[in-house]
Amino acid sequence: MDYNKDNIEEIVKQVLAGMKATSVSPAPAARSASGSIPKTARVAMLTGIEKFELKSYPMPEVGDNDILVKVEGCGVCGTDAHEYKRDPFGLIPVALGHEGTGEIVKMGKNVTVDSAGKPLKVGDKVVSCMIFKDNPDITMFDLNKQNVGGADVYGLLPDDNYHMNGWFADYILIREGSTIFNVSDLDLDSRILIEPCAVLIHAVERAKTTGILRFNSRVAVQGCGPIGLICIAVLRTMGIENIVAVDGNAKRLEFAKRMGADTTVNFTEHKGIEALTEAVKDAFGGYLADFAFQCTGNPVAHANVYKFIRNGGGLCELGFFINGGDASINPHFDICAKEITTVGSWVYTLRDYATTFDFLKRAIAIGLPIKELITHKYPLEQINDAFITNVKMEGLKIAVVNK
Ligand SMILES: [Zn+2]
Q1: What is the 137 CA–ligand 1 centroid distance (Å)?
Q2: Which of these, 82, 102, 122, 157, could form a disulfide with 71 (CB 3.0-4.6 Å)?
Q3: Are residues 118 and 54 in the same domain?
Q4: Phi and psi (nearest 5°) for 39?
Q5: Does residue 57 share a domain with residue 180?
Q6: Residues in contact with 103: Cβ distance below 8 Å, sequence separation at least 6, in sequence order
Q7: What is the rounded distance in angstroms from the CA atom of residue 252 to the CA atom of residue 225?
Q8: Alpha helices, H only, 68-112
């Protein structure tokens, strides 16, 4: 914007007009998009192993501190797939879907701002993050507070009388004590990608604590599923240029290049860890990596990644979202003698969530094909197909989209 004198007068006029508009707008007891809310809503309930059923429930009452959101879309996560295949969390029947976003259609009279203090109104596009039932003093500006491990999220809650507890549904009721963010300035695809991207924002924040990750670092990213690909995009938006992607799938490596990887190494073309290490070294022009991100859930990949890292380098292990079994390393050669600094990373904090909104804008602004991560979209009626596609690992990010 050009702040010359004439402009300033015009801007002041506009700001005053805007203030007037908000100060005269009425604040009724419960604000809603009148007449547009149906009496019932559908929820995709996981009622058995590998079985979703669309159930209709009466639209719940919206309490003074609650927000009713019309769901627009929700990504399918690896965690959802585990629950779908085996119910490891013992949640069935459950309304899944935690990578969701939608539009506020009704809010209680006490709701005025989101978790970052941004005003909220009917019509705003939102995402929710964690629910701190037992720990209400956690706020997004407490930088060193726990990650999501100590909190609940919508989409992984036990069923209750509301039923609208997950984003694979027409509507979701965001209740008092939940976190919510106004993300009206992001398009639907970007909003669906917020949750997985927050995992990488957190991982890179963890990596930065080692003091080893710098603008000119040589960084190896092992594993080019959605997590590895987003990792490359986060590094690229930070200004890190020298990135080598390692994977066994040529198509994914091609995508890794478009996301910002400088060079790629296909491990299927190199027999044995010595040859693979040489290939990584060649990719960096004769050097080992200063830092590596391990983004696969394969224990052998964990054991291998140390070999790619130089003496005094760093490692962020984020591939083992769930228990993937034990890995064998040689602590002398892999950690002590090399003096490698290792950090683990799991999920994210509330603060990382807010950082992610800006990351997505930057990634799009510099032309990274981040939205192409969503390879498949299904309507709610076809949620079983969405999960079958996810389990077959045919695409990258599968999404259920309501419109
Ligand atoms: Zn997830």
Answers
A1: 24
A2: 102
A3: yes
A4: -80, -25
A5: yes
A6: 69, 70, 72, 123, 124, 125, 126
A7: 7
A8: 78-86
Q: Do 276 and 389 have their domain in common? A: no
Total structural domains within the chain = 2
- Copy the structure tokens of residue 223: 């594993």
Token pair in block for residue 100: 């969701």
CATH of the domain at 83: 3.90.180.10
Note whether 149 and 347 are within 8 A (CB): yes
Residues 340, 202 within the same domain: yes
Whether residue 113 lies inside any domain: the answer is: yes
Distance from the CA of 393 to the center of ligand 1, in angstroms? 15
Task: Look up the CATH number of the domain holding residue 305.
Answer: 3.40.50.720
Say what the alpha-carbon torsion angle 346, 349, 354, 358 is, to the nearest 10 degrees: -30
Give 57's pLDDT tier (boundaries 50, 70, 90): very high
Q: Contact at 8 Å (CB) between 107 and 37?
A: no
pLDDT at 152: 83
pLDDT, residue 347, reads: 86
Phi/psi zone of residue 177: left (φ > 0), alpha (ψ -120 to 50 degrees), beta?
left
Is residue 117 one of the residues assigned to a domain?
Answer: yes
Asked, for residue 358, whether it belongs to a domain, the answer is no
Alpha carbon of 157 to ligand 1 centroid (Å): 14
Q: Are residues 259 and 378 in the same domain?
A: no
Going from the Cα of 39 to the center of ligand 1, the distance in angstroms, rounded, reads 30
Q: From ligand 1's centre to the CA of 299, what distance in Å?
A: 21
Residues 139 and 268 both lie in one domain: no
User: Which residues are 42's β-sheet partners?
Assistant: 56
- Specify if 95 maps to a domain: yes
**Residue 272: both structure tokens together:** 């044995």
Angle at 131 between CA 128 and CA 135, to 5 degrees: 145
State how far the Cα of 262 lies from the Cα of 245, in Å rounded to an integer: 8
The residue segments making up the domain with residue 202 are 197-344
Distance from the alpha carbon of residue 269 to the mean position of ligand 1, in angstroms: 32
Report CA(155)–ligand 1 centroid distance (Å).
10
Measured distance CA(284)–CA(299) in Å, rounded = 24
**pLDDT digits 0-9 by tens, 330-377:** 999 999 999 999 999 988 888 888 899 999 999 999 999 999 999 999
Picking from 255, 302, 310, the residue whose alpha carbon sits closest to that of residue 284 is: 310
